[in-house]
Amino acid sequence: MPLTFDDLLARARALTGAGRRAILGIAGSPGAGKTTLAERLVSALDGDGTCWAAHVPMDGFHLADAELDRLGRRDRKGAPDTFDAAGYAALLRRLREDTGEVVYAPGFERVLEQPVAGAIPVPPAARLVVTEGNYLLLEESSWARVRPCLDEVWFCEIPEDERIRRLVARHEEFGKDRAAAVAWVRGPDQRNADLVAATRGRADLVVPAGALPAAARPEG
To answer: What is the pLDDT, as a whole number, of residue 107?
Structure first.
């Protein structure tokens, strides 16, 4: 039978069966729907407002544009070496270990395209943390520290033409004109997507687009 969103909910809820906080990772190429899946899971699991689940994206660990300029990497923003991977892994370890106090995680402001420190509170009540990003299964450099911090990693996969359509629309929404959006998607984003696609085989579960309710299927 095809995988359903209810199946995903049950599997996510079961991760906390040992009585400790669990961390679920959602990986996938840019535009594959990672953020929408994470948000839908957390919303469904935390429907009574008890803060049982929390969403902590990887995007808060983007290096700031000023640092990318200093390093000469601004034209590759979004590539693995334009993130603080070691810092991200350290936060995941803290989320697992420091369950008696609020842990603050950085967020990412899409309009500014910049990380924002201390933007996401994870309260002690959170039994499941859902984190999502491109490189959770990457085994290069400091990214290799991430996977051991996660109980499971799911991989979002959608048809390539739909993924590209969503990604172009996202770049246009946040300020690029059509030509610039297409050039970025076909250039830096595609190189990153190819790198991420090669990690698919390391995932615990591959999530197809059909596992999300039709009304909630992501555009970005």
So the answer is: 95
CA gap 111, 71 in Å, rounded: 23
Return the CATH fold of 27-207. Rossmann fold (3.40.50)
Dihedrals phi, psi of 112, to nearest 5 degrees? -80, -20
**Closest listed residue to residue 85, CA positions, set 10, 126, 137, 45:** 137
In a 3-state reduction of DSSP, which class is residue 1? coil
- What digits encode the pLDDT tens for the residues 33-78? 999 999 999 999 987 677 899 999 999 999 999 999 999 999 888 9
Cα 101 to Cα 122: distance, rounded to the nearest angstrom: 8
Do the beta carbons of residue 58 and residue 163 sit within 8 Å? no
Gap between the Cα atoms of 208 and 181, Å rounded: 25
Q: What is residue 48's predicted lDDT score, i.e. its pLDDT? A: 67
DSSP states of 111-126 = TTTEEEEEEEEE-TT-
Give the pLDDT confidence of 20-33 residue by residue, as tens digits.
Answer: 899 999 999 988 89
Round to whole Å and give the CA distance between 124 and 100.
Answer: 5
Q: Would you say 156 and 82 are in contact if contact means Cβ atoms under 8 Å apart?
A: no
Sequence ranges of the domains in the chain: 27-207
- The position carrying tokens 């009585």 is 19
In three-state secondary structure terms, 179 is helix
